[in-house]
Amino acid sequence: MSDNSHCPSGALWLNMSGMVSTRFTIFPALLLAALWSSGCATSSPQSSIGIAGGGSVSLERSGAGFKRAENNRVRISDASLQAVNFDGNYYVRWTFAILPKQASEMANIRIEDVTGSSPLPLVNDVAPRQDGGIWKETAGLMEISSAGANWLADPRDTARVFKFTISEPNGQSDVLYQGVLQSRATKEAIRRMVNR
Question: How many CB atoms lie within 10 A of CB 76?
Fold first, then answer.
């Protein structure tokens, strides 16, 4: 639920009528109130997105996409889709990166695409290594028509949700959900590149 405490109340707009002559008050005041109120009602920084298993997650928006998921131990620093040419054939694959905030070892990193009706495993790194303090991994290659990438054919913007399960040697695990928004233009560019 969005916090509209910074938005004007209806009473404020009703009291404006005494400040301006009557013939100029009604339409501009109503128009301004409608625009301001509708802007406040839609400025929610959270998006609730359905995930595998019938649940949903609330993800914080940032600009046209989603804020990077983080907690006091790690931050998701990359979750992006790439087109890849392998032996003259084009595929897509996801690239992920995690930035640990504390000097701690990671024993296992599992990443699943949980956007659909069932989770799609993408990465299961049982011996994660960091390079320069960052863990990076790429998921396997997918054909654009595969179940993991067929959403690229949808002409609308598409939000994908990834579940990161990060385990440490002491048995502690952190679960973070990262949203990725793929715009129509981005999806079209990927399809053009892959369908050469």
Answer: 24
Lookup: tokens for 47: 């998006």
Report the largest interatomic distance among the alpha carbons of the chain, rounded to a whole angstrom.
74
Stretch (H or E) spanning 121: strand 120-125
CATH 1.10.3680 matches 46-194:
no
Tokens of 32: 């301004």
- Look up residue 19 and give its DSSP letter: T
Joined tokens for residue 127 = 């011996």
Mean pLDDT for back-to-back runs of 10 residues, the chain (196 residues)? 43 39 41 41 74 93 93 95 90 96 87 95 96 94 91 93 95 95 92 81
CB contact at 8 A, 71 and 184: no
- Which residues contact residue 86 at a Cβ distance below 8 angstroms, ignoring those fewer than 6 apart? 141
Give the C-alpha separation, 146 to 143, whole Å. 5
Which neighbouring-strand residues pair with 173? 167
Distances (CA, A) of 21 to 9, 17, 18, 29: 21, 7, 7, 11
Report d(CA 114, CA 118) in Å as an integer: 7
